[in-house]
Amino acid sequence: MASLDFELEKYKFRKFYDKNLSLIQATQDRYISTIEKLIEQLDVGEVTKIEGRIKDKEECIKKFQRKYQGKLEADEKPYRIKDYLSDLIGIRIVCLYEDQISVVSDVLKSHFRIIEVTDKIAAVESTEDLFGYKGLHMDLVPVQAEGASPRLQEFPFEVQIRSLIQDAWSVLDHKIKYKKSIPNNLKRRINVLSALFELADREFKEIRNATMELLQQATADPIGDSLSDSNGNGEIHQAGKGKGINVFNFLRVAGHFFKDFVFEDYKVDNFVQDILKQNRDFERADLHKSLIENLKTVKEYRTQFLLQNPENTFSPYTSIRHCLYKYDRETFGRILSRGAREHFEEWLEDVGGRDHH
């Protein structure tokens, strides 16, 4: 029963908290599991962290006292402390990019009932006090099934949704004590830092968008100069010209010739950089042509090499290096080590001599 006796209500709240702590913890875990499944099913993009916390009971009492007690008692309105705590359970969701925040928010709004939404991003950006952490706060409660027992009434919970950069800023921001009382010159420095974090957030998003455009372009474009080179009819068109080699179109071409091989991201990046060190104007069409013209020969060499050197390996990267070397010895003279280059040249000379006879 609600009352206006603060000491009594504190006692009752502490008793409620201690009695239900294990249930509150289990409820938090269930909420996190539900949110993880929703985010996975609806493909909202990569989320780096979903974590929860149970608010300390004394902190709960302090928050109630700070925000609600005075007005309730002035209005002579009886209360129970637990009825005014929407963040007893707190869940933090950290996305890679800022524009994922609204997507995650929409997912949660469609599956939970909203108590309150606080847009910390808009609040901070509309004031001169820029040094505050940004993010979206939502107080939610599961939609209660019709006819459910009051004993199974769900606990409300607060969700904080932030980008990775916003989360990093909030961690640092909390370490700065007495922010509103520090001298103006230090405030300005904090504001500069805040702006840099915001710029980083925006730039990461723009880089992601540009990267996706490159990937989509590489996927949509023809593999090389010729759509029928591999069939040997010699028909040529120039669709692939003018497109410098990059990791995306490298994967498009190499994946066509080595379908069963998994090209790891960091190795592809290093390999493409190695190609560009030899020839910064190298194009995707050049890579395609070098493989079309030389891969059959290199495969024959690979077979012979592995028979003679069964302890060695000869990966698709090694095959591509040999194709590039044979394609343009002058430009790609250093794409192979000295020993590998000399061994390959000896084999080519031997094969050429036998073919001639």
TrEMBL record:
<protein>
    <submittedName>
        <fullName>PpGpp synthetase catalytic domain-containing protein (RelA/SpoT-type nucleotidyltranferase)</fullName>
    </submittedName>
</protein>
<dbReference type="InterPro" id="IPR007685">
    <property type="entry name" value="RelA_SpoT"/>
</dbReference>
<dbReference type="GO" id="GO:0015969">
    <property type="term" value="P:guanosine tetraphosphate metabolic process"/>
</dbReference>
<dbReference type="InterPro" id="IPR043519">
    <property type="entry name" value="NT_sf"/>
</dbReference>
<feature type="domain" description="RelA/SpoT">
    <location>
        <begin position="52"/>
        <end position="184"/>
    </location>
</feature>
<dbReference type="Pfam" id="PF04607">
    <property type="entry name" value="RelA_SpoT"/>
</dbReference>
